[in-house]
Amino acid sequence: MTVNDAVAKRITKLLIEKGITQYRLEQESGIQHGSMQCIMNGRNKTVTLSTIYMIAKGFHITFLEFLDDDVFRDENIEFE
């Protein structure tokens, strides 16, 4: 699993937990729809820290809260 895959899984989990749509997350975070689609569909191979920060902001959580999930503890994450 790549870092991007882990970020996409975390986004999906939070969308369900918080009961919001991807569109609303895009609006709250300021991330363009095309960019979010690239993350969610695995076409983006380089998710930056600033993008993760913006996503966390869109969920109204801290950067560290976003990263505090088992998906990021997976020993199978590939670092490119």
Question: What does this molecule look like?
Answer:
The chain has about 80 residues and is mainly α. The protein contains five helices and no strands. Helix 2 packs across helix 4 (about 50-60). The N and C termini lie close together (about 10 Å). The relative contact order is 0.23.
Question: Which structural traits does this protein have?
Answer:
0% strand, 80 residues, 5 helices, mainly alpha
The largest sheet is:
none
Report the portion of residues in β strands.
under 5%
Helix content: 55-70%
The number of helices is 5
Give average pLDDT, whole number.
92
Describe what is shown at a glance:
By secondary structure, the protein is mainly alpha-helical. Helices cover 60% and strands 0% of the residues.
Outline the secondary-structure elements:
Layout: H1 3-18, H2 22-29, H3 33-40, H4 49-59, H5 63-67
Helix pairs in contact: 2-4
